[in-house]
Amino acid sequence: MTLELAILGVLAGGELHGYEVKKRIQELPGGILRASFGSLYPALGRLEDRELVKAAEPEARPRVNVPLSGSLSGEAAIFRSRRTKAPRSGRRKKVYAISDTGRDHLEELLVADITDDRAFPLQVAFCAHLPAATRRKLFERRRNHIAERLAQRSSPTDIDFYQQALLERHGDSLATDLAWLDRLIEHEQHPDPTGGKK
């Protein structure tokens, strides 16, 4: 589900080759997700089978008019350079695009009630595709989930110093997430007119 969300999210920004899809996923802030070609291409195939993505024709490069050279050898060189050579493999790189159905599915994934700590950052990474009110609900729901986890934390008495240290680290991490979500919610209530997307 995380890879599917990442692929649809990056393709929502425009048509891309498989290599570029992988590169964009890996460039997401915070190293949210790593995708190997061994997992990416089968996932793209499954999304294509479900008609969530489609193969797009790459745009042809514009032909540049070159002035005549006046010599037979010059004209022959221009003619040779203009001939389109088929790639050695005989195949062109496939360009992927998100379909209208894929955009609808992306929105469903972005608003899904996900408790997986690895998937939520992906929802945030692509939540600019959602209306502001929907983003706010997403952040508030996540905040409630984190606050609940923080409140339910218990500190067993039969653990050693290092396990206790790990528990404290986890509690600090949840508190940091709460503060971060409060900032996101505040932004949706009072967006920054100079930088935030509405």
Keywords:
single chain, mainly alpha, 3-stranded antiparallel sheet, 8 helices
Question: Can you put this structure into words, describing what you see?
Answer:
The protein has 198 residues and is mainly alpha-helical. The chain has a domain at 131-198. Helix content is 56%, strand content 5%. The protein is built from 8 helices and 3 strands. A 3-stranded antiparallel β-sheet has the order 1-3-2. Helix 1 crosses helix 2. The longest helix is centred in the C-terminal third of the chain and has 29 residues, at 161-189. The two termini are 26 Å apart. The mean pLDDT is 84.
Describe the protein's topology.
Elements: H1 2-11, E1 16-17, H2 18-26, H3 37-49, E2 53-56, H4 72-82, E3 95-98, H5 100-111, H6 120-125, H7 132-151, H8 161-189
Antiparallel strand pairs: 1-3, 2-3
Strand content: 5-15%
The largest pleated sheet is described as: 3 strands, antiparallel
Rg from C-alpha positions? 25 Å
Trace the largest sheet across and list its strands: 1-3-2
**Mean pLDDT, all residues:** 84
Please give the count of helices.
8
So what's the oligomer here?
Answer: single chain
- What is the chain-wise order of helices and strands? HEHHEHEHHHH
Q: Please report the distance between the alpha carbons of the first and last residues.
A: 26 Å
Short description:
The protein has helices at residues 2-11, 18-26, 37-49, 72-82, 100-111, 120-125, 132-151, 161-189; strands at 16-17, 53-56, 95-98.
